[in-house]
């Protein structure tokens, strides 16, 4: 069989197997798989350099299906390279199968979960940046994109960043099959429209007939000759290619074929071709950054330091101690103090500009290769990337995110800049860790712990300076809490800015003869259930105070921990829309300052 | 004073007032205001047609500061047109002042809150669409954008949609002052770079020196001659223009000037010029869509209908009854059943393609003019627009959002498509309403209620068909709940898919002699505190079940309602990362199906 014939037969096999898998499952996206089969056949046969026996090899190319719904095609590729067998292919979408509806990293060859459109390409940007600036290895990042997903703003963020960073190791294979879920896409087969956009962003563009094996081969070959620009292969294709009943016809998105046996016959029947994927060559190893070591920063108790500043200092010190720690920021590094890391470790700092989706996506890409990214911006603006954060959990990604300027305590800037939902947002991410330090030394310890933790780790910091109340080096294990002041009449629970308000309230109450226990709940998730239950048992009740809406934050974390105990709990939180004002005015207006906490405690004790 | 001299003097006044307001506040963004002063002076003087005495006039132009941090400039404009006086100007950022750190609609001339970058332009797209397709009035939408925010993907979504929809009534004034918060922007003063991007998206581009009054005048005049394309005026400007100490110098972002008195002198001193803004002319009135009326859909009890389908039917019927109801969808209208509205009311349907930020932003723009938009997509993908939803609450916007395909019960598609955080997400929005119907007739009633509700309204629907258990026309007031089955031993609380599981559990328990009360908690926020407290008092405890992570959803809403009552509550929720499988398999694995609920109830009764 000559080369192009083999390619054609392989592509037909991928189509047949996509049809078979979807029919076995009774659901899935065969037609969206069939359009890209020729691209994948060519990629596997001579272009992708990936050792499927050793997916952890750092020299491997990476392949991301940004159009994750084409999972039947991806799994058919895995079968064609011998990574899975035909029996497993037919477990597609079954309960317990590794072959989920959309690819996830339960399969060792899948870097990240996809299925929320527009995510694969920005994550690919993160991997391509990793290759060039961190690993410093010549691997390539291939991303299969759909045309429907090109309307996602996150795709544009990726185009911008890849062009700006000159990522010529990033190749987007764009399957322009014209048809979305409900009808024609915005631009149909107007490849020139897409080309103009990609060109404008600094990409090299190759326009081809995605079903012509010679054109596909020429484009992939050309794409590999890096010239400083990322490459977009714009492939005009037909959805459902090869089966007349569905080819280029609307109404067949996301459905198994009605007549799969006929379709398989029309495609030339089942095949059992095996393609040997190229392995990476050379003996390069990933770059290792020198880490001279050094201590963690220490702050003098009694001084006042913003926790965001302590974050920056801690991150810089971590960078001194560990070569695998990297930092990214969304063009606010002088507010988040990520600039301290940037100035000390410029090679490991990434300016992501004001593009929070790309900020988080790049971090996801970097952790795929074992780097330890810390990404920061205002906590309010991390909400821009919530879908990426949600999906990062599905990707089993290890992220460290820092959100600054939380709550009304930022003061004059007003509600657009105030994160008042971030605790709810991050608590409701699977397996997440949510930390909220009240002082600089605590911040340092928590930042250091985040570096070693799996999953989605979030640190909430405060804009204004807060008193340093802990000694340097004190330990604050994740999942713990700290009794900052003892007392048995009532318990005041705060974190971050409100811990200091709670301490102020306890002072006032003590003068009135009420002994309040004050708990610093710096670990919002996991939460210290034991300490809270002990407080519920030993004191007259709990008053919680948080610079956050009442829903999903510290108060509800406490209520969950105490569910069924019968302990009186009063949740103080921000209940009205704030405006501008001084931090003190706004904390007072929200009813989460020391006087408000004292009042609630008095009422509780009086009951 | 000749025209251009007046313009210059007016611009200098806007700069001086920006400096004065920021200095009075001790914070704010004078330098980002000064760069755009010439653009605004020209706009106010002969181009903007806005009756500041009658901001509700439907014929008015709209002016959105997408770069909301240039609020000192905006407020200085308000003073220049006589809308506010100098004394109020100097209340900038004070507690209780209408002049917040970033503009919000507490001022009657502000359509929407800005301050989270990249939002003003996509909302402007919504307003421009409203002008052309709903109001059918010749007003223009002027949006002042910064250059830093152009890296936001949402800006690209706006460029794409405006070009595609040929919104030549939309004019973006882009203040390319080169400097972001921390340093130079990605493209600096490379206007050609921006021009190529905007051109590619189908915009008309005018490149000018943003400080040359003749060029500014020519561009605004040209921009008004609509030719079917939206217009981007790319204005090269200098941050801090007019004050040598700060002009075009980094390090002065978001700070009052160090020497304001000298700056004011350098700018020629304070002025008290007044500009008379043009008023809209003509006697056109907003278009009114015919609404022939008709009943709401009714479903036969005992049949099975998906709540998402009932949403589509209800929406279509609402469209029959009310001409002000419009619908938008993110290219999944055959999944959300928004297609039923589209087919019945094509003039009032907007296809937003796969661009959830633009989907929500367009809805925000439409409600500014009093239209009643319903926007739909998969619930999981609304997380893409969370920052817009958060900000919509600051904008005091009235939104109706429908998220379909919630929870593990979607089955085979896997976790990327499963919303498991949406209840937490929407509960943590200020003033929000969160509804979760379990049957088709209930869905119809709730959709009808949403149309009349202020604030952010969210309806969660289920993919699969669920039994119709209510009669057509039964009422389900927001904030209420329904006891579907009575009993005094234990209470089972469900909503949506889990209500049916709870009913199944109650059947099983009844056979064992345990009488379970079943509460349909269709209104997750506001929640029916009375009914829950009554159940807590009258039964042995509550078991809640939700197809959602344990954090921030139905269970914590119940815990909040019962805080301090001492009632035993057991929260059943999804605690492990799901894969693919049948709905029944996944509900079982998550421990939220009828057997799991029955087991938890048995354990509670046994205590």
Give an overview of the whole structure.
Chains A, B: GO terms for molecular function: magnesium ion binding; thiamine pyrophosphate binding; transketolase activity. Chains A, B: It comes from Saccharopolyspora elongata. Chains A, B: Its cofactor is Ca(2+); Mn(2+); thiamine diphosphate; Mg(2+). Chains A, B: Belongs to the transketolase family. Chains A, B: Its EC number is 2.2.1.1. The structure is a homodimer of 607-residue chains. Chain A is α/β, with parallel strands linked by helices and 607 residues long. The first copy, chain A, folds into three domains: 3-266, Thiamin diphosphate (ThDP)-binding fold, Pyr/PP domains (Rossmann fold, 3-Layer(aba) Sandwich); 304-467, Thiamin diphosphate (ThDP)-binding fold, Pyr/PP domains (Rossmann fold, 3-Layer(aba) Sandwich); 482-606, Rossmann fold. The first copy, chain A, is 38% helix and 15% strand. Chain A has 23 helices and 19 strands. In chain A, the strands form four sheets. In chain A, strands 8-7-9-10-12-11-17 form a seven-stranded mixed sheet, with helices on both faces. In chain A, strands 1-2-3-5-4 form a five-stranded parallel sheet, with helices on both faces. The first copy, chain A, has a five-stranded mixed sheet with strand order 14-16-15-18-19, with helices on both faces. In chain A, helix 11 crosses helix 18, helix 14 runs parallel beside helix 16 and helix 19 crosses helix 23. The first copy, chain A, is elongated and about 90 Å long. The model of chain A has no long low-confidence stretch (mean pLDDT 97). Chains A and B meet through helix 7, helix 8, helix 12, helix 14 and helix 16 of A and helix 7, helix 8, helix 12, helix 14 and helix 16 of B.
């Amino acid at each position: 069989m000559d080369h192009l014939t083999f390619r054609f037969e392989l592509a037909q096999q991928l189509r047949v197997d996509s049809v078979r898998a979807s029919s076995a499952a009774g659901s899935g996206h065969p037609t969206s798989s069939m359009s890209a089969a020729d691209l994948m056949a060519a990629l596997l046969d001579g272009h992708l350099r990936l050792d499927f026996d050793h997916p952890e090899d750092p020299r491997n190319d990476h392949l991301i299906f940004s159009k994750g719904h084409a999972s039947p095609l991806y799994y058919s590729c895995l079968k064609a390279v011998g990574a899975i067998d035909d029996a497993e292919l037919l477990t597609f979408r079954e309960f317990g199968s590794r072959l989920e509806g959309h690819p996830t990293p339960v399969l060792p060859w899948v870097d990240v979960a996809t299925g929320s459109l527009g995510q694969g390409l920005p994550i690919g940007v993160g991997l391509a940046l990793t290759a060039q600036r961190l690993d410093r290895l010549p691997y390539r990042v291939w991303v299969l994109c759909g045309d429907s997903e090109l309307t996602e703003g996150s795709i544009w963020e990726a185009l911008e960043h890849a062009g700006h960073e000159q990522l010529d190791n990033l190749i987007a294979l764009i399957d322009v099959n014209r048809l979305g879920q409900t009808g024609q896409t915005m631009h149909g087969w107007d490849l020139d429209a897409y080309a103009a956009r990609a060109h404008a962003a600094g990409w090299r563009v190759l326009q081809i007939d995605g079903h012509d094996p010679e054109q596909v081969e020429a484009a992939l070959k050309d794409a590999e000759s890096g010239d400083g620009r990322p490459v977009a292969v714009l492939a005009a294709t037909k959805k459902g290619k090869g089966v007349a009943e569905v080819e280029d016809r609307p109404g067949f998105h996301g459905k198994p074929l009605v007549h799969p046996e006929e379709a398989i016959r029309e495609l030339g029947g089942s095949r059992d071709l095996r393609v040997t994927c190229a392995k990476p060559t050379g003996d390069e190893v990933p770059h290792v950054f020198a880490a001279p070591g050094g201590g963690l920063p220490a702050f003098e108790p009694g001084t006042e330091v913003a926790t965001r500043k302590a974050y920056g200092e801690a991150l810089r010190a971590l960078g001194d101690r560990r070569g695998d720690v990297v930092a990214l920021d969304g063009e606010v590094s002088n507010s988040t103090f990520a600039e301290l890391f940037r100035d000390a470790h410029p090679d490991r700092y990434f300016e992501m500009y004001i593009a929070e989706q790309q900020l988080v996506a790049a971090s996801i890409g970097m952790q795929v290769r074992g780097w330890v990214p810390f990404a920061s911006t205002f906590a309010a603006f991390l909400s821009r990337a919530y879908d990426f954060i949600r999906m990062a959990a599905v990707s089993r990604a290890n992220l460290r995110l820092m959100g600054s300027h939380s709550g009304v305590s930022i003061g004059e800037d007003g509600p657009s800049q105030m994160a008042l939902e971030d605790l709810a947002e991050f608590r409701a991410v699977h397996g997440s860790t949510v930390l909220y330090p009240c002082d600089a030394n605590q911040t340092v310890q928590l930042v250091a712990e985040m570096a070693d933790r799996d999953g989605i780790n979030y640190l909430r910091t405060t804009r204004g300076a807060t008193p340093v109340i802990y000694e340097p080096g004190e330990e604050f294990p994740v999942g713990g809490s700290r009794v900052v002041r003892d007392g048995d009449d009532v318990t005041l629970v705060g974190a971050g800015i409100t811990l200091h308000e709670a301490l102020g309230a306890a002072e006032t109450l003590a003068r009135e003869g009420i002994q309040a226990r004050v708990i610093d709940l710096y670990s919002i998730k996991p939460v210290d259930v034991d300490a809270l239950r002990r407080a519920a048992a030993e004191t007259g009740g709990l008053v919680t105070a948080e610079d956050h809406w009442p829903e999903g934050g510290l108060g509800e974390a406490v209520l969950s921990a105490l569910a069924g105990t019968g302990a009186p709990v009063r949740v103080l939180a921000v209940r009205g829309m704030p405006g501008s004002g001084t931090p003190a005015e706004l904390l007072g207006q929200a009813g989460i300052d020391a006087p408000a906490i004292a009042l609630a405690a008095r009422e509780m004790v009086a009951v």
